[in-house]
Amino acid sequence: MGKIKSMLIKRTGKKLINEGVFHEDFGKNKKILSSTMPSKKIRNILAGYMSRLKKQENKKNHAKHAV
C-alpha cells in the first residue's frame, strides 16, 4: 500500500516535472528543490514524489520502446 499525497504535493510536482530538470535520484532532486522550498518536510516529500514520477515515466517509456 502506498502513502497518499496531498493535493499541494501532487499539483506542485506535476507543475515542476514539466520543467524537466528532475532525476530518479532523491538526493539530486532534494538539492534542486533546496533553493526554492523553504520547508524541509515539504522539500523531502516533493523530492521523493518527483523521484517516483520520473521512475514511472522512464519505465513507461522503456516499455513503449520495447514493444
In short:
70% of the residues lie in helices and 0% in strands. The protein has 67 residues and is mainly alpha-helical.
Helix content: over 70%
Percentage of β-strand residues: under 5%
- The DSSP helix count reads 3
Q: For this structure, what is the CATH homologous superfamily?
A: Ribosomal protein S17
User: Could you give a short account of the major beta sheet?
Assistant: none
Structural class: mainly alpha
The first-to-last residue Cα distance is 29 Å
Mean pLDDT across residues: 87
Low-confidence stretches: none
Class in CATH? Mainly Alpha
In CATH, the topology is named Diphtheria Toxin Repressor, domain 2
Order of helices and strands: HHH
Outline: globular
Return Rg in Å: 12 Å
If classified by CATH, what would the architecture be? Orthogonal Bundle
Number of strands: 0
Structural domain tally: 1
List keywords for this structure.
single chain, 67 residues, mainly alpha, Diphtheria Toxin Repressor, domain 2, 3 helices, 70% helix, globular
List the helices and strands and how they pair.
Elements: H1 7-17, H2 26-34, H3 40-66
Structure write-up:
The mean pLDDT is 87. The chain has a single domain (8-66), classed as Orthogonal Bundle (Diphtheria Toxin Repressor, domain 2), CATH 1.10.60.20. The chain is globular, with a radius of gyration of 12 Å. It has 67 residues and is an all-alpha fold. The chain has three helices and no strands. α1 (7-17) packs across α3 and α2 (26-34) crosses α3.
